[in-house]
Structures
1.
Amino acid sequence: MSMTVPEMYGSLVFNDKVMRDKLPKDVYKALRKTINTNTHLELDVANAVAIAMKEWAVDHGATHFTHWFQPMTGFTAEKHDSFISPVDGGQIIMEFSGKELVKGEPDASSFPSGGLRATFEARGYTAWDPTSPAFIKDGTLYIPTAFCSYSGEALDKKTPLLRSMEALNREATKVLHVLGNTDVSSVTTTVGPEQEYFLVEKEAFKKRRDLVFTGRTLLGAMPPKGQEMEDHYFGTLKTRVAAYMHELDEELWKLGIPAKTKHNEVAPSQHELAPVFDTTNVAVDHNQLTMDVMRKVAEKHGFVCLLHEKPFDGINGSGKHNNWSMTTDTGVNLLDPGKTPAENVQFLVFLMAVITAVDKYADLMRLSVASAGNDHRLGANEAPPAIISIFLGDELTAVLDSIENDTFFGKQANVQMEIGASVLPHFAKDTTDRNRTSPFAFTGNKFEFRSLGSSLSVSGPNVVLNTAVAEALSEFYEVLKDVAPEKMDETVHELLKNAIKEHKRVIFNGNGYTDEWVAEAEKRGLYNYKSTPDVLPVFIEDKNVALFTKHHIFTESEIKSRYEILLENYAKTIHVEAKTMLDMVNHQFMPALTKTMDDILTVASKKKDFDLTLSVKTEKALLVKLSAAYDAIYDAVEKLEKDTKHAEEMEDELALAKFYQETILADMNEVRGYADEAEGLIPKENLPYPDYADMLFYV
Ligand code: ADP
Ligand code: MG
């Protein structure tokens, strides 16, 4: 008996429908109010919700519950408790209280805190986030929670996200009210993350220590065929891949994740999945869950799902496009140009707020996507450049030009103008979305932030976006708040004009992959942070600390702790890569080389035994090449070993991160260069692990 898709969809989610069915009316109402207006939940209400939740969960086969949270590791964390509670006579009952629902107290000492939490104060707590629905996975009731230290400092990725949504809600609503749109009582941000991934054979994966330990290949020459034929993008799905995607969709649907599109990507064995967008907080949770389910379902199909940003050198890496917009509780998408002049003006105000925000805080946007993995993509002509700019398209750029030059509103600037005398052009999606080289593109009714790496939590980029736009809106509000109604149109016009003048430098509609753009961006004074260690220090710059503290996203100590975690995480990542490379080269690749030389020597000497006059010219030539490669690799490995030891002794975190980036990565490239060249000289059976062709073309 199989379920229809509508029956299946959300069948494992404690969603609004279930709540309405299972909860007493007054409890439902109180909970709804908490969810919608972010207010405190009374303990008796929490108790009633807990009972209904537990009954529903047990009916669906759950035996445990967990507070599910997102610590600074970038992964999710969970600790499972069963519902059982012993009673007299050796019996148990299934129990779950409001207190257990609302708050948990996991030992926080093993999660990164960047020095926030002294060891004697290792306790942390998790707090239920009722705005993201609970769900059942693998027999456990999952309760989405925020994770804080005992003194209330955020130790996770959800807390700042909720704070940033609150800041944007507050500032956007104020601006809407001052513009006369008083029906609106709240504004939320929406996100639709498109997720790229690779599938490789589980058997092949297990033989590659680099994939197992680091998620990416550290050695490996390009196969005879790469992605140059462009035959994979949107190609027919192979049977096993189609079966995988089918099951993945079903598992996601059960969890209420609206998986919508799936297709093959540019690189061989690379694919993409995109859901329908949702409230940012829910979309972030869902994306974490999607990555998790992707990995689990892959195992069942004999695959491993790779979410690393750059699993294969010479082949496109994987990213994540963060589609973002703002919606009112009256159902209006604020980045939709709309049909009436009033809607047009509202759109222009919010559009300019985003442009202002991105120009002023491009450094933080770059920071929000920085990671060791993503450094292999950004600026490497397969992903957006490291320079953050905005693609608006010709039509909208022309609209801004005409506002700047006083021609858009069709009146002289000194004459009182009517709000939005002209109606904006309607944007056909295909005319707005052509430029794939832009990191931040307007795509008709939303912005698409394209610089995210595939493994990244989408929380960080949205914290920055929400906060920076909230700040721009709060500046706009300061300009508009005391303006008399009859002066409003003119003031809005001036505001837009000034914002365009000041921030248009961040708009760029051309090809972001060219050297001309790099030079032009420098002339315009735009940031160009090439690597993670380059950009991390912007986190603690005064301007950015001021932004985050003003809007109550982070305290100063939270910022410092996060900065430290990011530095440490970067250094650790490259450290593990360096050690893994040394292991593979010393224990697998070099022995394969010596074995090959030995084989050739054996042939040569057997030939001579057989007939002294036989030529060993080819054997000699091969041996010369192999021996040269052997020496070169040995020297490069020596240097990598020495530098890695040196790194282990360094103290200053920033200097260490820079050392890994400038020296260790360069050492690793050197080793890899020689090894990959020599790979062509080694018979396949001498190499103890699968090569690129095995991994990329046999799924
Ligand atoms: P593509 O970019 O592949 O052409 P779409 O533009 O249709 O596809 O959508 C890409 C993603 O953008 C989807 O996840 C979609 O749900 C999301 N999206 C659409 N509208 C919004 C919105 N208002 N806010 C956030 N995300 C959105
Ligand atoms: Mg897209």
2.
Amino acid sequence: MVTEQIIATRGLTKTYGTRRGEISALKEVDLEVGRGTFTCVHGPSGSGKTTLLLAIGGMLRPSSGSVRLLGDDLYAMTPSERARARSDHVGFVFQLFHLVPYLDVLENVRLGGGEASVDAARALLGDLGLSGRETHRPSELSAGERQRVALGRALVRRPALILADEPTGNLDPDSSAEVLRHLSSFCDAGGTVLMVSHGSDADAYSDRVLHLSDGRVTEDAPGALRSDPGRPI
Ligand code: ADP
Ligand code: MG
């Protein structure tokens, strides 16, 4: 069986121009991610993790190279086609949650999908262990609960792909494990997760562990020790 590629980048390169010269954030990244897989990309601060997710999510045009999302070349589209592809297929989760502070939990989740019914959003909150919290504001929740609300917002449109930028970076170990379990069950149901992290807490949930270093991606061989420097992909 041929695995369907949800993401395929070719020669993905991003160079930022700054007053102090050019910064190469991504260098010729070729990355394929198959449907139903959980991939974690490790890398230190400044290694290009956020840049990679933004480019894959259709929010940052590469300097060169291409990004295909479910087979379609994102940056060959018009801006409105790209926005449509993003909202149809991609859910985002961020380290700092990015919830709207003056909306309640149910309203924040419904922001993720215009047509999602109240019942669907309530059911999702139940799955995420947030029943009874629907009318609370984000400020009334723990960090772990806030991130589960953000997961609800990402999941409510039933995207093919979740892009998660250090989603456990601000959470205690128990809350991290809970968020990772929810991401993992999204994969078990056929969803695809690409997350980036500077820590290794997601390794146990991941099908693949990649490393981003100085804008280049390498992959651990299956069963390799974490100290293995990785092989080029
Ligand atoms: P990470 O998420 O791994 O910390 P980033 O993708 O945010 O890394 O950044 C990669 C490199 O690109 C860093 O050197 C960062 O300073 C630089 N960078 C990121 N965004 C911009 C920007 N908008 N303008 C200029 N440089 C940027
Ligand atoms: Mg980042």
